[in-house]
Structure to design on (395 residues):
């Protein structure tokens, strides 16, 4: 998972119980091959000691403005030079106030003021501290100053109360940091995606569906958001978390998905139809559970609408991307789908190469020909697809 290979991250840790999550964040950053320089405030070091961050990062830990290890005594300047991002996690109410006011009375606050890289902060505090007008004024000022605030989340807090102010989990902060460092190739674009299977009810407990996990569609939604797009995801029944920054609409059947897409498609720049929509649905769904009997059961099926074809046939359609999951003759079927439905791009794969799994091997079919992508995890593949789409839509 070399997502951050060659990147240098400065991690600031202030005095909150959520500092233990900063240790896990350090581990994730190092696993992604980032170089991590941890900077602790005096209060931050009371929760998790410098030795922990030094062991996890393999790097010296910084705490004092007067640290003599920096030959020129300019740690507050030199630490940010060449860094790709400065992340403060946790960021207490007091530290947010310092940032908003431009105060510089310790190494971390001085470093933030003198930084030469983007600043991201993950707030962590009691719910009343977060909702206090003074904190909200500081938050508004920080956003206006270009500081990226990650969270906070709502949930159980160390004080025993429940509410907004809880720091995001380490993995969420990691994902947001990775996203912030990506090229914003879809900035200003609106993207509508479908993902997952559909479920066509036979009776209240049975239905027609397929083995699509939704992982590729959710990975693409995340990759599009990461690239700066405004993303709406219409999802069939899956057990996946919504990617950060993505608006999600849950549906069950193909008709539900069609209605959701029809309601959202106006004004979209890109439509990516990743969902494995059932080709057929029962003509009638039984009101009550069908009881088992000795005789054969016949269920009459009728074709479901072709959502992608309908969108592509609109008078002024968005840039339409289709998926072709085949068991054989991939090029023939994928190209036939692209030409027949007048699509700009078709992403083709053999079902034995990734349906439902965590990795995939795909080939991109456009007017210029076939473009195979190397087999990789689905998020890496999704980034490759998004980069290709961005290249095709450039004026």
């Amino acid at each position: 998972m070399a997502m951050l290979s060659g990147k240098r991250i400065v991690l600031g840790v202030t005095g909150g119980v959520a500092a233990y999550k900063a240790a896990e964040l350090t581990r994730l950053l190092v696993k992604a091959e980032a170089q991590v320089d941890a900077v602790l405030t005096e209060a931050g070091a009371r929760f998790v000691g410098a030795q922990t961050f030094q062991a996890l990062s393999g790097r010296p830990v910084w705490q004092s403005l007067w640290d003599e290890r920096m030959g020129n005594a300019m740690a507050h300047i030199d630490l940010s030079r060449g860094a790709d991002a400065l992340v403060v996690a946790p960021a207490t109410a007091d530290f947010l106030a310092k940032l908003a006011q431009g105060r510089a009375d310790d190494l971390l606050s001085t470093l933030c003021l003198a930084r030469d890289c983007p600043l991201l902060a993950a707030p962590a505090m009691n719910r009343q501290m977060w909702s206090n007008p003074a904190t909200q004024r500081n938050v508004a000022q920080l956003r206006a100053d270009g500081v990226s605030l990650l969270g906070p989340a709502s949930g159980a807090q160390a004080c025993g109360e429940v509410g907004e102010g809880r720091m995001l989990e380490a993995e969420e902060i990691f994902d947001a940091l990775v996203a912030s460092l990506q090229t914003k190739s879809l900035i200003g674009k609106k993207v509508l995606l479908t993902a997952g299977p559909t479920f066509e009810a036979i009776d209240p407990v049975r239905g027609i569906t397929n083995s699509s996990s939704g992982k590729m569609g959710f990975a693409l939604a995340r990759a599009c958001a990461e690239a700066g797009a405004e993303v709406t995801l219409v999802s069939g029944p899956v057990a996946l978390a919504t990617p950060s920054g993505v608006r999600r609409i849950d549906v069950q059947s193909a008709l539900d998905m069609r209605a959701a897409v029809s309601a959202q498609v106006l004004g979209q720049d890109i439509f990516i139809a990743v969902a494995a929509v059932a080709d057929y649905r029962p003509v009638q769904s039984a009101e009550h559970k069908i009881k088992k009997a000795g005789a054969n059961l016949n269920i009459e099926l009728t074709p479901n609408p072709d959502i992608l074809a309908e969108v592509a046939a609109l008078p002024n359609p968005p840039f339409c991307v289709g998926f072709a999951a085949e068991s054989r003759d991939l090029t023939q079927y994928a190209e036939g789908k692209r030409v027949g439905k007048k699509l700009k791009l078709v992403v083709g794969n053999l079902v034995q190469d990734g349906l439902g799994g965590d990795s995939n091997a795909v080939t991109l079919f456009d007017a210029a020909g076939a473009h195979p992508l190397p087999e990789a995890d689905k998020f890496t593949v999704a980034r490759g697809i998004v980069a290709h789409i961005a290249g095709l839509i450039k004026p």
Notes: Residues 36 and 58 are 8 Å apart (CA to CA). The radius of gyration is 25 Å.
